[in-house]
């Protein structure tokens, strides 16, 4: 199994959109209403929004490939691009999305290592992320990677106010 990680370019926006919608639906559709899912997906993962995120110099996307197929991606943010003001010494892992058929193959660990590599290269002291309090599999993955819960913040899925745990790791 050949695994490669490549920086995502604007020309990759269709792949990024496809993986975003697919993985978000696979992970969260059973716990949320159809209306809230449709509203969120249309807002968060439309092509214009993704192109805007890709153009932000304070954010980076990395696609992970298994063989020649996109299996998932990583999005990291620094400075003002972070979804919470955590200061200039931190890097946010906003998304680690892995398609269901590639779960359990260590790809999330590859992407987390990429995030740590990017944080280290930019002299950051810590990395942080927000994870839905009901996403037990992701919480377990992050805890195993050394993250600890340091707080919480609101996340809106459509009109549903949900709670994301803020988890942080020193590097």
Describe the global form: globular
Which runs of at least 5 residues are low in confidence (pLDDT < 50)? none
Q: Can you name the CATH architecture?
A: 3-Layer(aba) Sandwich
Give the total of domains: 1
Q: Roughly what percent helix?
A: 25-40%
CATH class: Alpha Beta
Characterize the largest beta sheet: strand count, sense, and whether it forms a barrel.
7 strands, mixed
List the strand order in the largest sheet.
1-2-3-4-5-7-6
Summarize the structure.
The protein is an alpha+beta fold. It has helices spanning 13-28, 34-44, 47-55, 107-121, 136-144, and strands spanning 3-7, 59-66, 69-78, 90-98, 126-132, 148-157, 160-170.
Descriptive overview:
The chain is of the alpha+beta class. Strands 1-2-3-4-5-7-6 form a 7-stranded mixed β-sheet, with helices on both faces. It has helices at residues 13-28, 34-44, 47-55, 107-121, 136-144; strands spanning 3-7, 59-66, 69-78, 90-98, 126-132, 148-157, 160-170. The chain has one domain: Gcn5-related N-acetyltransferase (GNAT) (Aminopeptidase). A hairpin with a 2-residue loop joins strand 6 (148-157) and strand 7. The radius of gyration is 15 Å and the shape is globular. It contains 5 helices and 7 strands, in the order E-H-H-H-E-E-E-H-E-H-E-E.
Features:
single chain; Aminopeptidase; 171 residues; 35% strand; 7 strands; 5 helices; alpha+beta; seven-stranded mixed sheet
Q: In terms of topology, how is this protein built?
A:
Elements lengths: L2 E5 L5 H16 L5 H11 L2 H9 L3 E8 L2 E10 L11 E9 L8 H15 L4 E7 L3 H9 L3 E10 L2 E11 L1
Parallel strand pairs: 4-5
Antiparallel strand pairs: 1-2, 2-3, 3-4, 5-7, 6-7
